[in-house]
Every structure is written in structure tokens, then in C-alpha cells.
Write a structure and sequence with these properties.
about 525 residues, alpha+beta, eight-stranded mixed beta barrel, four-stranded antiparallel sheet, 20 helices, about 45% helix
Length: about 525
């Protein structure tokens, strides 16, 4: 018995040395079965891991998200999961094919490593390896390059190639951008073909712009301005904006318009005036101002910001808290030229929070504009720059929608003329849609001297008008607040090309943002 046991021990050691008792990794089994080649059953995980880590270190500098890829594979024991799961069933070829068609989105396929991916797939498909050692670097390179291609393609096509919040100084929309958790989920997808389909932009607007882009590209003029405009607006449609819901308001700065949407239906559409563009050579002038600190050197920039918020209330007969920049650059000079300018325009002056009773006596020339100690408010009334209505929404830029006492601006073609806020053409109609209540709407109308729709309230209206007209008792007009029936999502957007009834509409790039965006995208095209 002992003699037989001694004979068995060396036999077991010999078998172990020959890997006879060793588990074959899944990738080896999958490739061996697919190619009907026993070579792949020699796949040694330990030897492969050494090669994989070496290739990972050498390729990291070329990857767009090296830390995400490295962390993912270290957590998964450097297993070639994409090759194991998606090489044999053709899903990696599908990825390659989607990337080859990325020009349909305006991208150069080489941005996603198309040629490298294609070559590696061909090498593995050819199945011409003489030893298992030749397989390891090909599988490692294919796995890593497929991971990089997949992540980058997903990020660009689904989220957009540019982060607008980093590129544009006045972009305050909380767009969703790819993060490490999302990219890790992409690498671990259980259905790659389904994922590739799901990330394709599916909106009708995008599809129509895409078709127009391809038609222009067929004509062979890559520098065509219309083509560039379409491409930057396709990029805008790839950005993941907040969910606006079914009913929302959109201001389009280049179109100088406001539209109230309910799903795809337009409930209201009107003209708007938006902020004037920044001065020419703004960047150079702002550098000079930073050096001198002289307000005369400070260039003007009244561009309306791109932002997302929710309309929550209306101030009727509003008070205008005049911004410091306007006080320094405009009100100051008007007061210097005409000591009665302030009282004639219902502008009150405040010093440390207290109203100055006789602002006409202030010697303005004593104060440098840079250190002007006063604050200014324009009272309610016909001459107020905000008109009769101010539409409020939360934002950090002191921007709001409002009426105006200067209606002539709406007759202009280029309506980029305000200090940054948005003037609306039909404020009463807009107010009615916000309150969505007949009683509240009648109360609002009477506050601005308009008769109520409900004729049973005419007695109340007549009493209000009589009180205002009473010369014996001075009537002081004050602002009044009305809440919105519900908080309505608002997006102030910047769109220069969109499809409408089968025709692409183009608008002037009033702030030069298309130019900035195209310059950032060009390296990917």
C-alpha cells in the first residue's frame, strides 16, 4: 500500500506541472470553442495579467479616462470581460461599425480609435497565432482599446463632446455630464448592442439637422458656414438638459423670441429683447481694466446668460433696484448733467439703506464713480424701465423677464439691446398664463388700470380708479405680488439652427457663441 502511494505522488506532481489540474479561464474556453483551436485552452491567467498590466501602464497616457479604466480592471482582476463576452457574438464588431459611422454625428472616427480597434479585431479573427504567448498582447490591447473606444463614443454621442459649463462663461444650465460611476456601468454593460442603440440621439430635431448636415457634406464644402452652424446645434442637442416637463417656457436668444410650450404644442409665442453683445475686443479690454482698475477702461458686457430656472411669481408695478454697473455708467452721468434727472424719473437715492430726501442737491462731481456711496431705486409707475410687470425666477445673475415702457425695441430686427434682462412683447398675456386663475387675473388687471374680465367686479374697479384719481389724498403706487399657479420651468437658451416644417431655420450668432463652440469641437471633427 505504501509503495503504491509513493508511486502516485510523483505522478500527481507531474500532472500539476503540466497544468492538467488547472482551470481554464473563460476567455480561453470561449476562444477555443469559437475557433475550434485547443491553443486557447493553454491561456494562463497569471501570464496574461503580467502582459495586461504592462499594456495598461503604457496606454494610460493615450486614454481620455485612464483612471476609470484602470480602476475598473483592477477591481475585476484584470479579466478581459469585453473580449470574453462580446468578441464571439460580434458585438465588438458592432462597436467598430458604429464608430466608423460617427461622421454622421460630425465626429472623426479616429477620435474613438477606429483604425486601432479594427486592426486588433482583424488580428484576433485571423487566428494565426503559433503560441499562446502571442495571444496575450493582442487580447490585452483589444480589451483596453475597446474599453477606451466604448467609453469615449458613449460620452461624446450621448452627452456631447464639450462641457458647456466649462467652455462658456455665462452658461448656468445644470447639464448632466459623464462621471466615473456612469462610465464604469458602461464598461460592465450586460447588453452592448442595446447600449449602442440607446445612446444614439433620437429626437426628431436632431435627425433633421443630421440629414441636413449630411446633404451639405456631400457637396464637399467642409468650411460651409451653414454646415458649421448645424454641427454646433447638433452638439447642443446632445447636451443633457434638466427635464423641462410637458409645459415650459423657452427664450431663444438668437431668435429674440419666447415660446410657451405644452409638449409639442405652442401655447404662446412672442418677441423679446435680450442683452446687448459684449464690446469688440472684450478679452483684451478686460485685461487692461484688470491692470488699471479705471471704470473708463472697463468694457461693456450685457449678454443675457444661458440659464435654467422656474418662474414663481409676478411683481406688478415693480420697483427697479438699479444695478451698480448701470448706476456707475449711466445714472451717475445723467445726474451730473441734470440735477433734476433723478426726481423727474422717479429715481430714489439711498445712503447706507436710508433714503436721501433731497437727491437733487447732491454734488455728484465730488464722488468718483468707482466709489459711489449711493444706491438707486426707480419707483413704480409709467416711467419705470421695467414697465408694469416683472416676472421672477431664482437665479444668481439678477436676471428676470419684464415689461418695458419702450415698446419701439420690438420693431427692430436685431433686438439684442437690453442690459441683460429679457423684455417681453406681451406681458399681460404672459401674466395671464402664469396665474392661470380668473380671479387672480382680474385682480392683476385692475392693479394696472385695466377693467376686469368679470363685469361683476366693475364696481370694485371703479372705486380703485377713483382712489387713484383723488387729488385731495395723494395716492402712492406700490408694487404688488402675484404667485404663479405652479412653478413653470424656464430655459433661456441659445439656438442658431433648428428644423421647422421641413426647413432648417438659421439665426445670427449674436454673441459669437457658435464660433467659440465650433473652435472647441473642431479637434474632434
Amino acid at each position: 500500500m505504501k509503495k503504491a502511494l509513493f508511486l502516485l505522488i510523483p505522478i500527481c506532481l507531474l500532472l500539476n506541472a503540466c497544468n492538467w489540474f488547472k482551470d481554464i479561464p473563460e476567455v480561453g474556453l470561449v476562444l477555443a470553442k469559437h475557433f475550434d483551436n485547443k491553443l486557447y485552452k493553454k491561456f494562463d491567467t497569471a501570464e496574461y495579467n503580467v502582459i495586461f498590466k504592462r499594456h495598461l501602464d503604457s496606454l494610460q497616457g493615450n486614454f481620455s479616462n485612464p483612471n476609470t479604466i484602470k480602476t475598473y480592471y483592477l477591481r475585476n482582476n484584470t479579466e478581459p470581460r469585453l473580449v470574453t463576452k462580446y468578441f464571439v457574438n460580434g458585438a465588438l464588431d458592432s462597436l467598430k461599425n458604429y464608430i466608423s459611422r460617427s461622421e454622421q454625428h460630425g465626429f472623426n472616427p479616429e477620435v474613438f480609435g477606429y483604425k486601432k480597434l479594427k486592426t486588433l479585431l482583424e488580428v484576433l479573427t485571423d487566428n494565426k497565432f503559433k503560441s499562446i504567448a502571442e495571444v496575450y498582447p493582442v487580447v490585452a490591447d483589444l480589451e483596453l482599446n475597446a474599453a477606451e473606444s466604448l467609453i469615449k463614443y458613449n460620452n461624446f454621442v450621448y452627452y456631447g463632446s464639450v462641457n458647456p459649463r466649462k467652455l462658456l462663461s455665462r452658461y448656468y444650465v445644470p447639464v448632466k455630464r459623464p462621471d466615473s460611476a456612469g462610465m464604469t456601468a458602461v464598461l460592465g454593460t450586460e447588453d452592448l448592442p442595446k447600449l449602442l442603440i440607446s445612446i444614439q440621439p433620437s429626437s426628431e430635431k436632431y435627425r433633421e439637422l443630421q440629414e441636413a448636415m449630411l446633404k451639405l457634406e456631400k457637396k464637399g464644402n467642409k468650411d460651409n458656414q451653414a454646415l458649421k452652424t448645424i454641427q454646433v446645434n447638433m452638439e447642443r442637442l446632445r447636451w443633457k438638459l434638466p427635464d423641462l416637463g410637458e409645459e415650459y417656457v423657452e427664450v431663444n436668444i438668437p431668435d429674440f423670441s419666447l415660446t410657451w410650450f405644452d409638449k409639442q404644442d405652442t401655447l404662446s409665442h412672442m418677441k423679446v429683447c435680450v442683452g446687448a453683445p459684449r464690446e469688440k475686443d472684450y478679452a483684451e479690454k478686460i485685461k487692461l481694466y484688470a491692470k488699471t482698475g479705471n471704470l473708463d477702461d472697463k468694457p461693456k458686457n450685457h449678454e443675457t446668460p444661458i440659464l435654467y430656472s422656474k418662474l414663481n411669481s409676478i411683481q406688478v408695478n415693480p420697483i427697479w433696484n438699479i444695478p451698480v454697473s448701470i448706476a456707475r455708467n449711466e445714472i451717475y452721468w445723467q445726474a451730473v448733467r441734470d440735477p433734476y434727472y433723478l426726481s423727474n424719473n422717479n429715481i430714489k437715492v439711498y445712503y447706507k439703506g436710508k433714503q436721501v430726501n433731497d437727491p437733487d442737491t447732491i454734488q455728484w462731481s465730488k464722488y468718483p464713480r468707482e466709489k459711489l456711496p449711493y444706491q438707486f431705486k426707480q419707483g413704480s409707475g409709467e416711467g419705470n424701465a421695467l414697465g408694469k410687470f416683472k416676472f421672477i425666477f431664482d437665479n444668481g445673475s439678477s436676471i428676470y423677464l419684464h415689461d418695458t415702457n419702450n415698446k419701439s425695441g420690438f420693431a427692430r430686427g436685431n433686438r439684442a439691446i437690453s442690459h441683460g434682462c429679457v423684455r417681453v412683447e406681451k406681458p399681460l398675456e404672459f401674466a395671464q398664463m402664469m396665474v392661470k386663475d380668473k380671479y387672480q387675473y382680474d385682480q392683476l388687471r385692475m392693479e394696472v388700470n385695466l377693467p376686469p374680465i368679470d363685469t361683476t367686479k366693475m364696481e370694485v374697479f371703479n372705486k380703485k380708479m377713483a382712489k387713484k384719481a383723488d387729488t385731495l389724498n395723494t395716492f402712492k403706487l406700490k408694487p404688488k405680488w402675484f404667485g404663479a399657479k405652479k412653478r413653470v420651468p424656464l430655459i433661456i437658451n441659445y439656438i442658431t439652427a433648428w428644423p421647422q416644417n421641413g426647413v432648417i431655420q438659421f439665426r445670427e450668432d449674436v454673441y459669437g457663441l457658435d464660433e467659440t463652440l465650433y473652435a472647441a469641437m473642431k479637434k474632434f471633427m
